[in-house]
Amino acid sequence: MMRLRRIPLTQIICMGLLVAVARADEGMWLLDRLPEAELREKFGFEPRPDWIEHVRRSCVRVGAGGSASFVSANGLLMTNHHVASDMIADLSNEANDYMKSGFYARTLAEELKCPQTELSVLMSTEDVTARVNSGVTPELSAADAQALRRKAMAEIEKEARTRTGLTPEVVELYHGARYHLYLSKRYTDVRLVFAPEAGIAFFGGDLDNFEYPRYNLDVTFLRAYEDGKPARTEHYLKWSAAGPKEGELTFIAGHPARTQRLYTVEHLEFLRDVHIPLVLSAYNQREVALLQFMGRSPEIKRIATEDLLGIQNGRKAYGGILEGLLDEQLLAQKRKAQQELIDFINADPRRKAAYGGAHRMLAEAIDRCRPDYPAYMMTTNRRTSLGRLYGVALKLVQAAAERARPDGERLDEYRDASLPSLELDLFSEAPIHDALEELRLSDGLVRLGRVLGGSHPVVKTALAGRDARSRAAELLTGCTLKDVAVRRKLYEGGSSAIAECDDPMIRLARELDPLVRKYRAKYEDEFEGVEKEAYGRIAAALFELHGDRVYPDATFTLRLSYGTVAGYDEPDRAVPAMTTYRGLYKLAAQRDNQPPYELPARWRERKDKLDLNVPFNFVCTNDIIGGNSGSPIFNRDGEIVGIVFDGNIHGLVWDFQFDMKRARAVGVHSRAIIDALEKIYDASPLVAEILGR
Amino acid sequence: MMRLRRIPLTQIICMGLLVAVARADEGMWLLDRLPEAELREKFGFEPRPDWIEHVRRSCVRVGAGGSASFVSANGLLMTNHHVASDMIADLSNEANDYMKSGFYARTLAEELKCPQTELSVLMSTEDVTARVNSGVTPELSAADAQALRRKAMAEIEKEARTRTGLTPEVVELYHGARYHLYLSKRYTDVRLVFAPEAGIAFFGGDLDNFEYPRYNLDVTFLRAYEDGKPARTEHYLKWSAAGPKEGELTFIAGHPARTQRLYTVEHLEFLRDVHIPLVLSAYNQREVALLQFMGRSPEIKRIATEDLLGIQNGRKAYGGILEGLLDEQLLAQKRKAQQELIDFINADPRRKAAYGGAHRMLAEAIDRCRPDYPAYMMTTNRRTSLGRLYGVALKLVQAAAERARPDGERLDEYRDASLPSLELDLFSEAPIHDALEELRLSDGLVRLGRVLGGSHPVVKTALAGRDARSRAAELLTGCTLKDVAVRRKLYEGGSSAIAECDDPMIRLARELDPLVRKYRAKYEDEFEGVEKEAYGRIAAALFELHGDRVYPDATFTLRLSYGTVAGYDEPDRAVPAMTTYRGLYKLAAQRDNQPPYELPARWRERKDKLDLNVPFNFVCTNDIIGGNSGSPIFNRDGEIVGIVFDGNIHGLVWDFQFDMKRARAVGVHSRAIIDALEKIYDASPLVAEILGR
Q1: pTM of the entire structure?
Q2: Contact A668, A642 (CB under 8 A)
Q3: What's the CA gap between A160 and A167, in Å, rounded?
Q4: Are residues A205 and A295 in the same domain?
Q5: I need a labelling partner for A263 at 20 to 30 A (CA). Which of A133, A390, A670, B324 fits?
Q6: Is B95 contained in some domain?
Q7: B406 CA to chain A: closest CA distance, Å?
Q8: What is the ipTM of this complex?
Q9: Within this chain, do residues A507 and A430 fall inside the same structural domain, yes or no?
Q10: Distance from C-alpha of A512 to C-alpha of A509, rounded to nearest angstrom
């Protein structure tokens, strides 16, 4: 399943702001800059402004990692089960395990409020490039220029918030060629309406993840509330009961998180040889530790399942990317394109003066950042954290210091515009399970030592002269941060409250914070500064080379992609575009109905009610990536024909190169969703709301 | 379970030949150098020469990784199920899965011949130090001196073989302070007599591995044959039907593979920061890959189980060692002892001249070998190989080159004395499963890239410009080496046959061999040479400091340890020395009889026949390590009271430091074995043979 591979916000903002040249059905297009000529020529389709506006306001961004869409005027929205599974797991307990049993609220009163959830809808965009760059002169150093831009961005956001009451964000596009002010409406009261059993949402589990053919009902319905009542949502996507046909034009609108399509060869080699191996090694260690841990009892298994699914998904995704990057043929294409661009730049003295040296500059910065990169990763990346309570402690410690500074000088995630999200996270009542925290912490401590070596200052500070297990026990025994009131008090008390606090986890965060900041500053100053400058030049040169057939690299902002429903060929077989319910039952039988191919009881009992020829999942050529999970797939009339939940294994290379020979987006068919709701789940009221009956 | 952590023979021979100073029940003693004073003082026991000779000749070394003992005059021998599980798995197929069902041959005719198995019994030892060192003068370089010694060793072995017909091996002890000629009797016709179900042999699986209390019937009976008839074994250990009592003196004789008790702090830091992280990262990746793979079908699960068990065991063992080495308190003890030794050396000009500088010299060599160590590990270590067929191909390629050289100039594993083992391995008929080979190869190729980076010559050579999956398919499709006759022909054809062979796997091995040799030579020359010299000095200084209360570090040669049956304390509870059958059934019930706590059907059905108070497993303070698996535990009368199958988690640090506060050896009780054979397996004839009735 195409979970967003979680990356710190700083990375999303700073690393992926590139441009790319479109080919075939390629492109994650900004809604105000669609490839109109291509759509007209290939499909005879011309998107009208009201069509675009309607799509934009029907699309929803979920928390820090997924997409959704409104499907009724009463705030009903559809996303993937795997996007909502954090919420579903948080709402579950030993007695009511909704991950296992599924959930359906027949009435509004039965809908369950999800802790720690944030949705947002993009209401308007505005180009603020000139204002962000005002005062920035060529004489300024990169760091000074960036500081000036940050200050301007903070002011623009502050002013916009006061003026509109909406949530502002200045987003950087085309690697700084453009800055847009995005104004979003936020929903924080979100309730669970319907979720199927994890067994059918993720049928085939990790084994079939990123594979095709597939048979997953990876769908969940939520409802946005305002002032305690269902939100009134004027814009929502209507439903196509028939669903898509083979060859039909499909649109996907959602929030692809990050692509690196313009990365230089040297940068890709750095990902291949340094970054991805670190990530994979962290994933592999944690997956093994979790599998061991989950053998202890069914309850332990339940509480750790979410962590496991996330880890397995990431491991498979990054493993696929690594395999792609190890394929010399793919890198050879990149190398050729890069040389062509360098030749184009050098062929003209003006271009050479404006864009020259970018590739070399970047390669040198990569070499410089390499030695301390593991320490940066281990202290900053969410994938390598020491558990939820340590995460809370570090945020409290950093927030105290950062909030005392002017907005423009803060670390990104502590700027005023980001504080609502920070607070939502810090004060979430989502349950924290002692045993799971202990595992995360002790495994994380060992991982620090394994990656950085036992003499590294980070490791010595973290272990404090103890063995990992004893240290984890010591830190957790005295930790008071499970209590949200304690967190709130520390947050409100600021620097003095933090300084006086003798909670062992706060103490650890206080001791590690200077190191965390040191490696982060080093990376951001030495690498990201150069990266920004270099990709700015590369992007500009590409603009000049290719004209305006370009889209910005994905940045977790709203994008639209187009394509068609189409199967593909594997070396040994043709893979049809669609699967059916019949295929689902056949596969379950082949695998003796054993996990992960075990059908939930309801699906076994009600098989006869289903028309087994109904299409279940399908693939299309639309250009998507992690973060697109939960995006609606719709037709030219703006009617939902399905929902994206995955890409196939060939699509993993889409991070850095689009290809439509075999790579595909994978979705659930709209008719299958309706059939399941009616015949398996007796959810006629929900169906009526969706179909507008 | 305490599987031998597999290491190439070169490492066993070259890395672990140190001495250590004994404390408490510490010590893996040579049989001709037992701690007589201690045994007398502590236990009033004086081992007579005939007692020692009888023990020596009753003990058996299994293949390249375990221990066993003769238990009847007709070649019957006992080892662990997990030591024999390679053989049991090789004898199994889809129709008869003896791992799952267990196996019992009621008659000689029913005994099954194990492919690729080699047992040996140490018949005599002789000190050949003077002869090995003859001609070695202080003027010679370390490399020249070593070449001279190797030549002498080869000659000694050759001569001994001709003279005695036995299998000779010159073993290095006390890091070269002593060389002993070991003459062994080899058995290659070994048959399976009895194996329980894996479900009871490894009850609790990976979850309970290295834990205590335990409930494992980790025992298997084999029979050595000579000339097609059961071997007549004059020396064998009699059986104690009553088994051991708490506090009773216990001996363990077996083949501990490798300890590093004298390693310097810097060397331990190298293990902690470089070697073990590489190993663990390889294990984690493979474990995750195998678990995915095994979900494909029950048959795939069956064929991959052996690989998985080995990987999980190694991962847990190395993980425990890493945790131990990350414990600053433990390293602080080492640091203190090291400083005392350095002070002792420096306090006297003669000692300083003889032993000084060893620690510094070693630290510098470690720093030098660090950059290319990953390439050495990835190309030489068995844990990081590219599968069985590649292993066969590389051996064939290297054997062709090496056998053309004089014996003394060859790589160790191709010396004449090693050829019988090499040939046994090369020409083994053990089944090779296509799907498993493909997994090992493609996963191994990705691991190469992940560890070494995509631009490394080893990776580029191995992938040959393809992606890992396509490359694996290409290599396996054309590979002819599954056919043992093909291997034999290539082996016999020597260099010209290899040069002309166009098997893709042989081609790959031919292309990689220069790189394999380059990194190995670099490591052996730059590191092992210095290591040998440095530890030689350190060992000699320690002899001088501590007198003769020393034993050599483990080297997979026969050793005797002593101790007592004793429980221990965990922070939160006292752990009794023994478990019972009652405890087994209780635990199975607590875990709902689900894997890995699922009792085999026979055990569920025949519960009533057992006396539930019979002791099942027990712990003792004897000093053991990987390779000791299958060692007999016996009393002062030389009667078997149990069999070693594991150490507890605290015993993992025994690799580099003995401690008897909580660390324990874990064994199966002799009475439990008899009871199970009689009451669960109806194996009265086997019991009669064991008890000499």
Answers
A1: 0.81
A2: yes
A3: 8
A4: no
A5: A133
A6: yes
A7: 41
A8: 0.79
A9: yes
A10: 5
